[in-house]
Amino acid sequence: MTLRSIQLALILIFTVLAAPTRALAHAGHPEHEPPPLLRNVDVDQRLNKEIPGDLSFKDEAGKPVQIGQYFGNRPVILSLNYFECPQLCPLLLKGLSDSLRSVKFNVGKEFDVVTVSIDPRETPQQAAKARKTYSQSYGRGETLEGWHFLTGSGANIAQLAKAVGFKYNYDAKLGQYAHPSAITFVTPERKIARYLFGIDFDPKDVQFALSEASQNKIGSIVDKVMFNCYQFDPRVGKYSPIALNIMRLGGLLTLGLMGTFIITALRRERRQQGGQMPTGGVG
To answer: What one-character DSSP code corresponds to residue 198?
Structure first.
């Protein structure tokens, strides 16, 4: 491999890594400036704050319930999603169910999970479908008793989200929500104990957080690695942060593979030339 080949390879690597930045710039947004719909999407960690128990929702069967009835005996993992989410919510809920399979505690016995739709247009029928999907993913019969999927009015959803510190926006043109990806651990007394962020949750972290919450212990503020649920819209040319992160990850993987190829080729060529590094020029 000549010096010119190495230079060309490095140029290609730079091009791959720079592609997400150019894509965002072409969409009319500098890399440091998120699209307007994402600017207020965040989670304010409201540790030790109490979730109001009198907020009314409907369960999967369409039965009126109050959020407070799921507390009192054991801790609760609370997630705010929506069932027709095209991108991040299925990843979060699948990641949660996968993690819970490796936790020694059982849903419906040692703790409960409550998933509330942030979309007031969604119905108990959609909630029932989601319940079936993620109950099967979890694979333990207790889930049917301990993992609840709720729908409700816009006012009650907004009050619950405010209590949790969950900030989201709605894009009327696309009919989609921009929202963060997080789960909240709540004590039996409805006090917020801890947050976990992302779409892939370490079972040890989940088990530790449940143990804390079961003893009414309150954790500390954790660093947020924020994923925002909002997809690329070709009509306006905007990428979401999660799309850019995936593109950057692909670029880093490419960088690693090409770096390994260059090092291997140089070593092979040096062996062929009796230990002498190749020489060459550009032009």
So the answer is: S
